[in-house]
Amino acid sequence: MNYKIKSLLIPLIVLTVFVLSWELASFWGYLKPTRFPAPSKLLMSFLDLIFSGYPADVTIDQHLLKTIERIIIGFLLSVCLGVPFGLLIGGFHALDRLTSTIIAFCRSIATLSLLPLAIVWFGTGEQSKIFLIAYGCFWVMLSNVIEAVKQVDPLMMKAAKTMDIDGIELFLKVILPSVLPRIFAGMRISLGVGFMVIVGAEMIGTVIGLGSLIMEARTFYRTDITMVGMMILGLMGFLMTTGLAWLEKKLMPWQQQEHDRTSP
Amino acid sequence: MKSVTNKIDLNNVYKKFITDPENMQPVLGDVSLQIEENEFVVLLGRSGCGKTTLLNIVAGLELATSGKVQVDGIDVTGPGRGKGMVFQQGALFPWLNAEQNIQFAARKQGLNVEQSKELSQKLLLLVGLAGAEKKYPFELSGGMQQRVAIARALALDPQILLMDEPFGALDELTRIEMQNELLRVWSLKQKTVVFVTHSIWEGLMLADRIIVLAPRPGRIVLEKKIDRQRPRKRSDPMLIELYEEIWTSLQ
Q1: Which of A135, B7, B195, B249 is deepest in the core (most CB within 10 A)?
Q2: Which of B19, B71, B93, B100 to mutate to test the interface with A (most CBs of A within 10 A)?
Q3: Please, are residues B211 and B50 in contact by the beta-carbon 8 Å criterion?
């Protein structure tokens, strides 16, 4: 059998068996509908979300678009700040020594514990949500860029020097291309963080967004809606990180196929 | 009467790293060495004997603490295009393919796009890599990567080729192959070569002259001219004798 078909077929079979046993377990009453609604029920809820929306009239596309918007703005902010600061800190040993403790500390703060503060600072509107996402993404981005610069092969720098490359040219033609893969890896990880933070960030002050959908449904014991929201969020995160990995492969064909599974 | 001028002239070169107060011994203590044009010189010694430092000083990547370092009678103040360098595996730019890596160097030498393309074709042919133009370093074996590295160094059209354990990361068989390749290239393009290694046999196969260095402080303990046709055979009694002598000097 063709390898490609085989590699697709096996997960498909596993998934089918899983869904089928779930459905049967619900049907025979082993799983309570309020705790583990059957897949068929989830499908119905999903269709419900598309056509009539939850809460009333807020349909799934609105939730989806709003969430994507927030994640992307926060994520891009973190990239725009993280890359230049990372290059700077990574490039100067003294700066790195000076900031490493602070960065390690800020990175360790659970982003969602900043929620109350974010509300005090930015109110309950969009700003506080974007701040939280950007905060979570930023530190991951920053530390990855710093590491990337620090790990530029000294032998390669030496080789560049023997070819009379220095200054701006050294930065643009040697340092930048050699840190690019690691920056991309950082982007993938940080996007993942964005998806983790979003549920918490959307807890307050909004009914639109997948995170708020999940929280809202939980309040009313709509386990089915919570699960559907969860799955959509998961699928979206998966698609976006896969897209980024694809882009990475297109932009950097010199990379050896390395499958790092460093997701948070 | 024409006086023979030295290509590379090292006089009383002394090097000490100030950043390392623990290490009171200088890396190089008073090394003097003259290298003639088109000579193939091998620097041989254990790790830490300062052979790479010496090479870096000739390259202009490091400065001597004191002493005189001249190439063509001019003081070395920094890396320059007259000197091409080949390092251990991994110094190629991974984001450029074989051809682009060579062209990068060619462009730095002032050639235009057309000329550098032509030159890279010629050099790839010279190092036996025709057909691998579009391959990225990760797609090339270690030996092939070093062929590209040699071609890249040659693209700078240097008069001096500095090689820092270029075959050190290769397996034994590839290594012998690459030594022969290097000799072939060297016979076609006359260059002054300074080659650093810790393999006695590699030195014996390649060198016009072997310089043996000893550590703490780095100094020359033995100097041997090898007047033998290349390719050489390991079974050559003279080389075996030299091997013993060098080995003894390293103890």
Answers
A1: B195
A2: B93
A3: no
